[in-house]
Write a structure and sequence with these properties.
- It is a single chain.
- This protein is an alpha/beta fold.
- The chain contains 11 helices and 11 strands.
- The chain has a 9-stranded mixed β-sheet, with helices on both faces.
- Helix 4 runs antiparallel to helix 5.
- The longest helix has 21 residues, at 200-220.
- 42% of the residues are buried.
């Protein structure tokens, strides 16, 4: 994995997840307590607070505001807005990594992953991905030291995707305990060296949201059999998916701090798990991480270094 040492960066309908059709308990809230839906007088915020007290899984999808909404009293586009003209084209056509403009976009995305999907989608629109769609996937189980949050940002056409992991939240005790859970854990698959081990806390948090993320990516590259997913208005994705008609062609993964570690590990999984590599391997363009801690032992590091893609296209800013 390539490391970049830098000290400059001067540029600058919430719904609980329900069971799918045909599954038991369809229409009920999926949570640790399995509480019934709240009475009509109870707000969504109160209902979600009750659900998240016991942990659980939730998703939320939003559409970015248009440029007309972002610039109500000025010209739709100016010299500095959006930050990068034709950003989707650059993300699709970049040949060599790291690319300084792409690195700036990834760093910005990783920074705003500490916010909510509305804010992140707005910021990515300002960066140049107009009318993007942003889906947040979050899973938490306090007793298992799991607090995993990821965002999938798709360009308007659907051809470019950015998978971004949120890092350690300053006031999240579970995040800090997970960071300290350094007992090595055997990988669930072989990566050259069958004895390679990784940071247990990072591995556990990646797995917590992995299948939901993979389903979201399946939908992004056009597999309508993929389950789950919520549209911007809270409806479950079906045959008439509200996003662009294009299929995912370029996938970038990023994150800061623990989120960077999760991003790097997901990159390894996509590269070395055959079921993921067969459909996503050619679409994954690069992994950019910022302030990423180490994620594996020397055997794991050597195995990653022997892989040409991981060696050249996983860029770690320290």
């Amino acid at each position: 994995m390539a490391s970049v040492d830098t000290t400059r960066n001067n540029r600058q309908t919430d719904k609980p997840v329900t069971a799918t059709d045909g599954q038991p308990n369809a229409g009920k809230v999926v949570s640790g307590n399995r509480k019934p839906m709240a009475a009509s007088g109870e707000s969504i915020e109160e209902r979600m607070r009750d659900i998240l007290r016991g942990g659980g899984l939730r998703r939320r999808g939003v559409r970015a505001p248009s440029y007309d909404e972002l610039r109500p009293f000025g010209h739709r586009e100016t010299a500095g807005f959006p930050v990068y003209k034709n950003l989707e084209r650059r993300l699709l056509s970049a040949v060599e990594q790291p690319d300084p403009e792409i690195a700036h976009v990834m760093a910005t995305c990783a920074a705003y992953a500490y916010s909510d999907p509305e804010t992140l989608s707005m910021i990515m629109a300002r960066m140049g991905l107009e009318d993007n769609h942003c889906e947040m996937i979050h899973s938490s189980v306090d007793a298992m030291l799991i607090s995993s949050t990821a965002f999938l940002v798709l360009s308007r056409s659907g051809r470019v995707g950015i998978l971004c992991y949120r890092g350690t939240e300053p006031l999240n005790f579970i995040n800090w305990m997970s960071n300290l859970d350094v007992e090595p854990e055997r990988m669930g698959y072989q990566i050259s060296d069958p004895c390679a081990t990784v940071h247990a806390g990072v591995y556990r948090n990646v797995r917590a949201t992995r299948y939901e993320i993979m389903n979201a990516l399946r939908r992004a590259y056009g597999d309508r059999k993929a389950t789950g997913g919520l549209s911007a208005d809270g409806d479950r994705y079906g045959a008439d998916d509200p996003r662009g008609e294009g299929e995912l062609e370029a996938l970038y993964i990023t994150g800061h701090s623990q989120g960077g570690a999760m991003a790097a590990l997901m990159g390894v999984m996509i590269r070395h798990e055959r079921k993921y590599r067969d459909v996503l391997g050619d679409r994954m363009r690069a992994v950019y991480t910022f302030g990423q801690p180490m994620i594996g032992d020397p055997s794991f590091a050597e195995a990653c270094q022997s892989d040409e893609f991981l060696r050249q296209n996983v860029i770690r800013y320290v």
